[in-house]
Amino acid sequence: MASTGKLSDRTVEVELGGRLVTVPEGGLYDRFRMNTDLDEIARDPRVGSVDFFRRMPKTRVDSRIGPTLTPNFYYRISTARLTMLAPSKAIRSRLPEELDPLEIVPGLGIVSVMAFRYDVCDIDFYTEAAVGIAVKPARHGRGLGLFDLVTGLKNDSLHSYVLALPVSTEIAQVRGHDGYGFPKWVTRLDVDIDTERTSARISNDQGGLDLDLWAPTPKQTAQPTGAHVSTLTSYTTIDGAWHATTSQINMLSAGTTRLPRGLNLQLGEGRMSESLRALKPIRTIQLDVTTEGQLALHMPVPTSVPDRS
């Protein structure tokens, strides 16, 4: 029978890419090693349906963390994304030369603060946050790209470069950093998202405040599984070569507020706040919150990126 309560506080060590990490004893990763039984997940009352995953078979691939199954399935998630305008000059100072910011008008780009809560997934419960930059698809030229702008703002097909990506568990850090090339580290990270309130608090290495976000949750609209699946492509370098990681998000209950009111974003001292300050955001234009969703995270694949050196 699927577990419906909190996992035991006991942990076990597992080997991942030549490193030992701790995972919950009796959790999904301990029992299934990414090959999770969908019938068992379907019995979990937190998960409304697994139909999205039944149509997406996993494949075994070799990676920098050893042989693994892909995609990584997230059966119940909630997310928040705060979208802000920032000067392109500041954005370019933090972007690799090969990537271009997605600009709303020449000289003005888009940056975001994101928070994620993964209640049921192949590597067990964890939370995550990010500071990211919206970028143009890597194969496009330096022009404005109206199509890229329109589709990006509609939240249907976004491309990004992540500057900071703290997580709350060891296995998420090792997989994300060693396997995907993301700038991940482990810290205290509390994310709570429901139909009334959205909050995220990220601690720094000394236990103090890095970043704190609080906002009223936008009115949610429910949709059948598979009716709205958005795609996020993130660019990273692995062993000096460019890769693209694709995330497919099955949005089951979501809402948007433009020019949100009642929002509180507090910066402290840490890598999240330092990254956001460096981007010099000017104005918050949108808050997107998904109180119920699902995610298929694919392993990164090599991609061609223009060499402008």
Short description:
By secondary structure, the chain is of the alpha+beta class.
Descriptive account of the structure:
It is built from seven helices and 19 strands. The model is unreliable at 1-5 (pLDDT under 50). Strand 15 and strand 16 (241-258) form a beta hairpin. By secondary structure, the chain is of the alpha+beta class. It has a seven-stranded mixed β-barrel with strand order 5-7-8-9-15-16-18, surrounded by four helices. A four-stranded antiparallel sheet has the order 11-12-13-17, covered by helices on one side. A two-stranded antiparallel ribbon has the order 1-2.
Give the SSE layout.
Layout: E1 11-16, E2 19-24, H1 28-32, H2 38-42, H3 51-54, E3 59-61, E4 68-70, E5 72-87, H4 88-94, E6 103-105, E7 108-121, E8 126-134, H5 146-153, E9 157-167, H6 170-179, E10 184-186, E11 189-193, E12 197-203, E13 209-216, E14 221-222, E15 229-238, E16 241-258, E17 264-267, H7 271-279, E18 283-297, E19 301-302
Parallel strand pairs: 9-10, 9-15
Antiparallel strand pairs: 1-2, 3-4, 5-7, 5-18, 6-7, 7-8, 8-9, 11-12, 12-13, 13-17, 14-16, 15-16, 16-18, 16-19
